[in-house]
Every structure is written in C-alpha cells, then in structure tokens.
Design brief:
Layout: E1 25-28, E2 38-42, E3 48-50, E4 61-63, E5 66-67, H1 91-95, E6 96-100, H2 103-111, E7 121-123, H3 133-137, H4 140-149, E8 154-158, H5 167-174, E9 179-184, H6 190-196, H7 203-215, E10 220-227, H8 235-248, E11 253-257, H9 264-275, H10 280-286, H11 295-312
Parallel strand pairs: 2-6, 4-7, 7-8, 8-9, 9-10, 10-11
Antiparallel strand pairs: 1-2, 3-4, 5-6
Length: 342
C-alpha cells in the first residue's frame, strides 16, 4: 500500500503528506458486521479539505473521517480515491477502510486557528461518515461537538440511520449555528436497493430518519440520488419515491442522475454486465461522452421530479419553509444564532 507520500512527519517532502506508514495500524474484527473488512487506523495531519475550484460542489470545505465505505454502493463516485493508496477500487473500496482516528481533536484544533474564518463544512460528500465503521470508532460525536462549540455551520449527507445516535448533539449545534441534514434515497425499489446498495439501511429506514429529525425540529431534505437510467427512472418509480419522500416529511427533494466517474464506471459496468447484460449497450451510448448522462436526460428527470414534488407539496420552492429550532434567550455558546435550517 502506498503510504509514503502521505507521511505524518511535518518535514515530509513538499509538506503535502496526510499520514505516514509508521502511523498506520491495521486491524480486523471477527464480529459478524465487520467480517471480511480491514481497518487501517491512521493519525491524520489535517482534516479540513478544500474542494477543488473546478468542482461542481456548492461548498468549499469538507471533513472526511473515513476513506472507503462498507455501504458498497456499486456506483459510488469516490471509488477512484482508493487508487491513490494503491488500493483496489472495487471490493477493496468496500472492505479496506481508512479511519482517521484523530479526526475530532484535529478538527477542534483547526477550527480554533486564527486563520480559519468559519466557512461552511460539508460532510458525507465523499464517503458516508455514518457508515458501519462509525458504530465502532465513534468519530462523529467529537466532530459535531467541535463544530457546535465553535458555532461553525455544517451539513451532513448520509445513507446511514446511525446519525440518530447523535440527535442530541445535532439539536445543540442547531441552536447556535446553521445545520443542514440530507438523507440520500434515490429509489425505494427493494430489489434494486439490495443489488446496488447492499451495505446500506433500506430506503424506508432512511426515510424514518427524515421523519425523526423533523420531529425534533431539524428539517431534513432528501437527495434523490442516484436516479439510475433504465432501472429506476420509470414514471411510476419516480412517483412512488417522491410520494414516500413527501410522506416522510422531507423539506425538499433534489434529484441527481447517476454519474459514472473513472473507478466507479468500471465497477458499475461490471455489475451491469452480470445483472442486466441487455442494458450494457444502452449505457455505453448514454455515457459515451463522459461521466454524466446527456443534458436532455438530466433535465427530463429533474422536471419530472420537481413536478411530482409540487404535487405532493415538497420541493425547491419550499426550502425556505424548513422547521426552525427555538433560539434560547441566553445561548450558552458564543456565535451566530440559527435563523433557519437548510
């Protein structure tokens, strides 16, 4: 495994290293939920990551306490990142998990730096910070507490129900800063879920998270992602999914069509040849020009979902109507008070 260019030594060449070979501890656990999974525990040098300027992402900073993901989604765009460590982007991505064990204290120190200006921090945008490993390593409570204590705005995107473990911390954070939570549910078809997202909680369980957060005053949106061409994009499938999202009490629904970046593309196409060989040619034509589906297709899906969202009373037009958390008369923590949730 190529750790050399990720050394923990501050004197490492170019000062760009994240951690070093002597800072890596490899562990396996014999419990059923972790059987076949290897964890590489590392001491990271930095936990705040700046998003490249050319990115389509609407945020500038991220925190990723893990690399690799036991959700094992066959389409995951983050698979390519495993190749940077000479790890396999297929099964290796699903079973070789890098854990930045010092993430909470590292983040707390970086937030306290005079150079940090309190920018919004997004989490769960690379791999899920509430994947199975979080149940053992419990990094997110410390991360959320650090953000709360510095009144730093943040958002979390997850497929994991484990986020409810940290509900009290999220409510506390939302009293002093802007907190945005989104749950990813691209479809509710059970057969499709079992084959393309085998390590995730079921879509209905994820939607229960949306409802529970809402009951505690935290408005939660749904990222309807991915909409999978020819497998999850029939009008009746879209309608069924948006109806379920609305019934869960989501404050918004945002569709995102499947995109296939290098690393994810190869793994997804291997899966497609095995499960749906008749669709291989259609995919090769649809994604012939790159990672993204044709613009006309993306617009069609977006229009259909937005029309359904309007019909069921959710969608972009209602984003400003998300639930509010009352601001205490004497906030215990210094910082800006929350006006509304994303």
């Amino acid at each position: 495994m190529r750790w050399d260019n990720l050394g923990d030594d501050p004197a490492a060449s170019a000062g760009t290293a994240l951690f070093g070979a002597d800072a890596v501890t490899t562990r396996t656990f014999d419990t059923p939920e972790f059987r076949g999974i290897t964890f590489h525990e590392v001491r990271a040098r930095s936990i705040l990551n700046r998003v490249p300027g050319a990115s389509r992402m609407p945020f500038e900073w991220t925190v990723n306490p893990y690399r690799g993901c036991t959700h094992a989604c066959v389409y995951c765009f983050a698979r390519k990142t495993h190749s940077y460590l000479d790890l396999d982007t297929g099964l290796g991505f699903d079973s070789q998990i890098v854990v930045k064990t010092n993430a909470p204290e590292l983040l707390r120190g970086q937030l306290a730096s005079r150079r940090w200006q309190g920018a919004h921090i997004a989490m769960g945008t690379n791999v899920d910070c509430y994947q199975r490993a979080e149940g053992r390593y419990r990094l997110m409570p410390g991360i959320i507490a650090a953000l709360r204590d510095h009144a730093n705005p943040f958002s979390i995107l997850t497929k994991g129900t484990l986020i409810l473990r940290d509900l009290d911390l999220l409510v506390q954070a939302a009293e002093v800063t802007e907190v945005g939570i989104s749950v990813s549910v691209g479809f509710i078809d059970e057969e499709l879920w079992r084959t393309v997202e085998p390590g995730t909680p079921s879509p209905p369980r994820r939607l229960e998270v949306v409802g529970t957060l809402g009951e505690h005053g935290i408005g939660c949106g749904v990222l309807m992602a991915p909409v999978i061409p020819f497998l999850g994009d029939r009008p009746e499938q879209l309608r069924e999914t948006v109806r379920a999202v609305a019934d869960a009490g989501a404050t918004s629904v945002t569709p995102l069509v499947l995109h296939l970046r290098p690393g994810a593309r190869e793994w997804f196409m291997t899966w497609l040849r095995h499960h749906h060989p008749h669709l291989v040619g259609r995919y090769e034509r649809m994604y012939a020009d790159g990672a993204y589906a044709p613009t006309w297709y993306q617009r069609r899906i977006t229009r259909q979902v937005h029309e359904l969202a309007d019909e069921f009373g959710i969608g972009p037009a209602r984003r400003g109507a998300s639930r509010r958390i009352p601001v205490p008369e004497e906030p215990a923590l210094a910082g800006p008070t929350q006006l509304t949730l994303l």
